[in-house]
Amino acid sequence: MDDLFRMHAEICKTFANPKRLEVINALREGEKTASELLKDINISKANLSQHMAILIEKGVVLSRREGLKVFYKLSDKKITMACDLMRQVLISHLEENNRLLKKFKK
C-alpha cells in the first residue's frame, strides 16, 4: 500500500504546476502540436519542452513524431476529469470563504 501512496504523491506533484495544468487543459479536446500548445499557453519553447518532458515521463502525456512535428495528447481522459474535480473542490472552498467574508463584513 505504501508504494501506491508514493505513486499517488508523485502524480500529484506532476499536477502541482500551473503551466502543466494549462497544458493538460489545452490537450483536453485532443492532440496538439508543440506549436499549437505554444499559441495556447504563454510560455517559452524551452519551458514548454521541460514541462512536456515531465508530463511524458510521468505518463500523463503521450507524444508522437510525424516528420518535423511532434504531437502530444493526454494518455487518459480521466486526467481531465480529475483536474475538473479538483477545480470544483477549489471553487467550493472559494465560495465558502466568500460566504464567510460577507458574514463577517456585516
Mind explaining what this structure looks like?
The protein has a domain at 2-75: Arc Repressor Mutant, subunit A (Orthogonal Bundle), CATH 1.10.10. Helix content is 66%, strand content 13%. The protein contains five helices and three strands, in the order ααβααββα. Strands 1-3-2 form a three-stranded antiparallel β-sheet. A hairpin with a 2-residue loop joins strand 2 and strand 3 (69-74). The N and C termini lie far apart (49 Å).
Nutshell version of this structure?
This protein has helices at 2-14, 18-26, 34-40, 45-57, 78-105, and strands spanning 32-33, 61-66, 69-74.
Helix/strand order = HHEHHEEH
- Text of the CATH class of the domain at 2-75: Mainly Alpha
The helix tally amounts to 5
- What is the arithmetic mean of pLDDT? 94
Question: Stretches where pLDDT falls below 50 for ≥5 residues?
Answer: none
Look at the helices and sheets and give the structural class: alpha+beta
What is the CATH third-level topology name of the domain at 2-75? Arc Repressor Mutant, subunit A
Q: What is the molecular shape?
A: globular
Could you give a short account of the major beta sheet?
3 strands, antiparallel
CATH architecture of the domain at 2-75: Orthogonal Bundle
Summarize the amount of helix as a percent range. 55-70%
- β content, as a range? 5-15%
Instruction: Name the CATH homologous superfamily of the domain at 2-75.
Output: Winged helix-like DNA-binding domain superfamily/Winged helix DNA-binding domain
Spatial sequence of strands, sheet with the most strands: 1-3-2
Distance between the termini: 49 Å
Radius of gyration: 17 Å
